[in-house]
Amino acid sequence: MNPRQREKVEQHCGYIAIVGRPNVGKSTLLNHLLRQKISITSRKPQTTRHRILGISSAANYQCIYVDTPGLHAKFTKALNRVMNETVFKVINDVDVILFLVERLTFNAEDKMVLDALAKTQVPVLLLINKVDQVKDKEDILPHIAKLSALGDFAEIVPVSALNDHNLENLEALVKRYLPVGVFLFPEDQITDRSSRFLAAELIREKVTRQLGDEIPYEVTVEIEQFKQEGATLHIHGLILVDKKGQKKILVGTGGERLKRIGSEAREEMERAFASKVMLNLWVKVKSGWADDERALQSLGYIEPS
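Below the sequence we write its predicted structure tokens.
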């Protein structure tokens, strides 16, 4: 075997699912593992709605992380059902699973995730996130012992995704479980998602952060134009809401709230795309979009089989 063949055989590549109930820090973990933001975050549950790949290539290892929506028990809309189905599909088609829980909590929704993982044949690493927020560190070891009795976990790893605590150790552990195989993506590729998709997500992130609890999660964003002209990237974003009253809240008095959303999104886009951005936003009422299978497909929530 010549050196080139040996190097090819020694490559390791695999898919790693990041799963957990809503708002345990899955997207924050992905962004910090990649050292680059590709998945939007907020303090609100169900911020992540899509399956997003984050690709980390180093030496002979390519880790393909799959950020997933939070698995939740209570839902009434087709959108929520689609998000849950996305999680079930992912966990049955990966090489390693990172199951996130939060601090010293293990509730009914965590149990729902655990039950979903019960039939998987791949290694499950249980991550206890936000351990930096545990006041009495002596409480962590008994909690680990309690969790270890709940399932057959390959590893139990305390981490703080936000503060990068123990992430280097986590990355090393993940690599141990990757199968031998050639890289599936170019070494400089970070995600499978387009810049157009990222633009829509950044707008939705700012909407979610600005509005807090004022508007339900029946808000989505569609990019109608994404065009580079000279040194300027021209982006037209359409924000869809479910009701007329939501449009009024989102726009704000004299359009001030929408301007603030646009300004914050534009600044982050300029950093992400390394270009001057001209961003124009509109708000449109599209009643029932979150419970309309055809609308969900056109908006990219339902992926082709």
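The longest helix spans residues 256-273.
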